[in-house]
Amino acid sequence: MSSPSASAPPALLLEGIVKRFGSAYALRDGQLRVEPGTIHGVVGPNGAGKSTLLRVGSGQLVPDVGTVAVDGVAIALRGPRAALRAGIAMMPQEQTVVPGLTVEENVSLGHEPSRGGVVRRGARRTRVRETLERIGIAIDPRAPIDELTAAEQRMTMLARALYSGARVLVLDEPTAALRREDAERLLDTVTAARDAGTAIVYVSHRFAEIERLCDAVTVLRDGSTVDRLVGVAITADALVRAVVTEGAIDDVADGRRTSSPASDLPTVARLRGITGRELHGVDLDVRAGEIVGVCGLAGSGVTELLEALGGVVGPGAGHVEVDGAVRRFREPHDALRRGIAFLPAERSRAGMLDRPVRENLLVARMDDVAVRGFVTNGRERRAAHPALASFGLADRADDPLGALSGGNRQKVLLGRCVRADARVVVLDDPTVGVDVGARQEIHRSIVALADAGRAVVVAASEVEELAAVADRVVVLVRGRIAAELSGDALTPERLVERVTVEAAAPST
Ligand SMILES: Nc1ncnc2c1ncn2[C@@H]1O[C@H](COP(=O)(O)OP(=O)(O)OP(=O)(O)O)[C@@H](O)[C@H]1O
Ligand SMILES: [Mg+2]
C-alpha cells in the first residue's frame, strides 16, 4: 500500500448523496471518501445503492442532493464525458459493449477526438494493444467485439476504463462473472494501477477479494453509508458481519446436503458425444435428485456444455436425451416446453421481459396461474409472493424487472427456473452478483430442487460454491471430461488442483 501524504485531498469525495427514482430512494445518505493511490472497496446487500453511488461518482447520474469533489475541488459531473475530463472512468456492472464495432473501437469509445478531429488509427491501435497487454490478454484489436466470449468482453470493458489514463477508476463488480484465472488477472491489473498511483473504487460481493485488495472499505445499507473499515480491520468475517443483518451468518457458504442422493434413481438427462466449438465428444448422465457440478478453465467448454443441455446451441455433433427420448431444441423456450429450465451465465441472454417482476418470475408456468385462460394481477401476485419473499423482494412484485439492482434481478431469474416444472434444471453461475446473505438461500433452493427429484446441472465461477452445493463435479479440460470428484474428495482445493494440473498436462 502506498502512503499518500496526510495533506493530500481525497481523489474522490462524495458527501450527503440523495438519489430517488420516482418516489423510491436509491440513496438516502451516500458517503464515499477515496484516498489517492488506494483501492477502496464498497460492499453491501443487493439493492443497497452501491451501483447508484458509483454512477453518481462517475457522472452517469446527477444526484438530487449532495456534493462530488475531485482532488478536493467540488465539481458538477454532468455526464460520463465530463467525468472523463475530470479523470474518472467507470467499468459498469452490466455488459455495455457496443455490438457491431471492433475491439479497438469499443476500447477507445468516448475518447475519440471531438467533432472535426481526425482519428489517428495507427496511434489508436498501438495504444489499444498496449492497454490489452497491460491486462494480460491476447485479443486482436481489430476483432469484431461480438466474436469475443463474455469474459473477454468484460476484460474489454476494463481496457476501456484503463485506456483513458484516468486517475480514478470506478469498477462495479468487475470479477462477478469471471472464472478464477481471469479474475486473478484482473486483480493483478487493478493492483498494478493502484501502485502506479491510481485511486480505485471497487465493488464486489466476493469478500476474499476485498480482504486481499482493499486499503479501505465503505459499507452501504438501505441507501446510506453505515460503516467504514480500514487496513487490517478488513477481513472476510468482518465484512460478512457488516453486510448480513439477520442471524443468518452461520455457514453462509455451505449448503451441501448431508445425505447423498439415492443411487437407484433413474437417469433423466443423457448427453452423448456432445461436440462443438470447444467440446470434443462429451458423455454425461444426470440422475433424478442429483446435483452435478461442471467446472474447468475458460475455454474448456463448461458454458458450451450447459448451453447444449439448455437448448441454446444445438451441438455440432452428438445428442441430448431427456427421459429416454432424443431432444432437439431450437431455442430455450423450446427446451423449457420439453422439461429443461436454463439459467445462462449472461443475464442479458436470460430472456428478461420488460414486464413486472412477478410476470418475469412466473413466465414458465403461467398456465398454473391462469383460470380458464385468464390471469389476473392478484392471482399473479399471490403466486409470486413466496419466492419473492424468500429473497426479501416481496414489495417489488409490481416493479419492472429493469428497476431492480443487478443482484436482485439475478434472484428473480433464478426463481423462474426454480418455479418452472422442469425435469432438468441447468444453472450457469446462479449466484453471480448475489450478496452473501442470499447466496445461502439460493444454495438451499438448488438442494430443494434435487430433493424434489429434479436433475440439476450447475456451473459456478467460484469452485467453493460447487464444492458446497454439488453431489459430484466433473472437470472439463480442453473440451473433455478429465476427472470427476465426489464425497470427501470434493473440496475446493482438489477442484483447483484437478483443473490446473490436468490442463498443464500435454494434450495428447
Ligand atoms: N433505474 C431505476 N429505476 C428504479 N429504481 C432503481 C433504478 N436503479 C436503481 N434502482 C433502485 O435503487 C436501489 C439501489 O440499486 P443499486 O443498483 O444501486 O443497488 P446495488 O447496491 O448496486 O445492488 P447489487 O448488489 O444488486 O448490484 C434498488 O432498490 C433499485 O431497485
Ligand atoms: Mg450494483
Which residues form runs of ≥5 with pLDDT under 50?
A: none
The main β sheet shows up as: 6 strands, mixed
Ligands present: adenosine-5'-triphosphate, magnesium ion
The count of strands amounts to 20
What is the level 1 CATH name of the largest domain? Alpha Beta
Core attributes:
single chain, 508 residues, alpha/beta, Rossmann fold, 2 domains, six-stranded mixed beta sheet, 17 helices, 20 strands, globular, binds adenosine-5'-triphosphate, binds magnesium ion
Task: Give an overview in words.
The protein is an alpha/beta fold. It folds into 2 domains: 12-243, 3-Layer(aba) Sandwich (Rossmann fold); 267-504, P-loop containing nucleotide triphosphate hydrolases (Rossmann fold, 3-Layer(aba) Sandwich), CATH 3.40.50.300. Helices cover 33% and strands 23% of the residues. Strands 6-7-8-3-9-10 form a 6-stranded mixed β-sheet, sandwiched between helices. Helix 4 crosses helix 5 and helix 16 packs across helix 17. The chain starts with 11 loop residues before the first strand and ends with a helix. 49% of the residues are buried. The model has no long low-confidence stretch (mean pLDDT 88). It binds adenosine-5'-triphosphate and magnesium ion. The site of adenosine-5'-triphosphate has 20 residues, from strand 2, helix 1 and helix 14. Magnesium ion (MG) binds at residues 50-51, 93, 172, 405-406.
